[in-house]
Amino acid sequence: MGFIRGWNVEYSIVLPVYNEQDNILPLYQELTPVLHSLGHPYEIIFVDDGSTDHTFERIRLLAAHDKRLRIVKFRRNFGQTAALDAGIKHATGNIIITLDADLQNDPKDIPRLLAKMREGYDVVSGWRWKRKDSFFKRFFSRFANRLRRWLTGETIHDSGCTLKVYKRECFKDITLYGEMHRYIPAILRFKGFRIGELPVHHRQRKYGTTKYNFKRLFKGFFDLLFIKFWNDFSTRPIHFFGTAATAQFVLAFVILIEQIIKAFIIRELLLGPLLILSVMLIITGFLTFIFGFLAEIMIRLYYREKPNYEVEAVY
Predict the structure, then answer these.
(1) How far is CA 56 from CA 119, 163, 198, 206, in A?
(2) Report field, pTM of the whole predicted structure over 0.85
(3) Which residues are registered as beta bridge partners of 195?
């Protein structure tokens, strides 16, 4: 059963695309039989992330023959995270399904992910446990996943896999930016949603070229640090800045005591690098405390109209 005007859409499939002209038609031909088999109204949302080839034209040809297909077109390339955010914000379904448009994700895994969700999860993430990527991509992905699990406490193996299914309420009050699409499960875990994982198929890329590069790796690392800070200290930033300031004061005190003891021994107080470091630590400690108080004020303003908790249901 497809999408009929006036009916509620059950599934919204969000597909970020960038220069994937040769993958559009094969993806559509693989995806639609799977979605028909689900037995509920659906919509397919292509987000053209500023493609410079014939990707947009080929999506428009499909949209002319399938009213369930919608297009969000960017003026230029803004990145996968922005494309996912735009697609999710335009989605109307109760369940949002995301996957890559490069044919490396297998649409036949979608029913399995939905079945896993019915076990009581709010999100189910695909796990590319037999990846068909280069050694370079697999190595850095494994390193990034281990670092993410260590910093966030979120335990899924492959947060970078785009193939995921979400309940619509997961994205209430969430805006994605930077390279944060990799850390959506960590963000949702912090908000109290239940996260599941399922091994999925992963295939060799046939057409087009990968968009992965070193820049995305470093940007993703900085976004991870921000998510770690936000998860731990978003409601009380003074705890972070206060701890950092206290550590500086303690170190300054230890250095100052050492210099005083040394002065008694040699009967002369020398203005050396350690004494200057002690004074500098005291100054930077006070500045860190001030930053903490300013951050605390901003957070209280941020949460004035928005509670710092999530209500699942009221019975």
Answers:
(1) 38, 22, 32, 19
(2) no
(3) 123
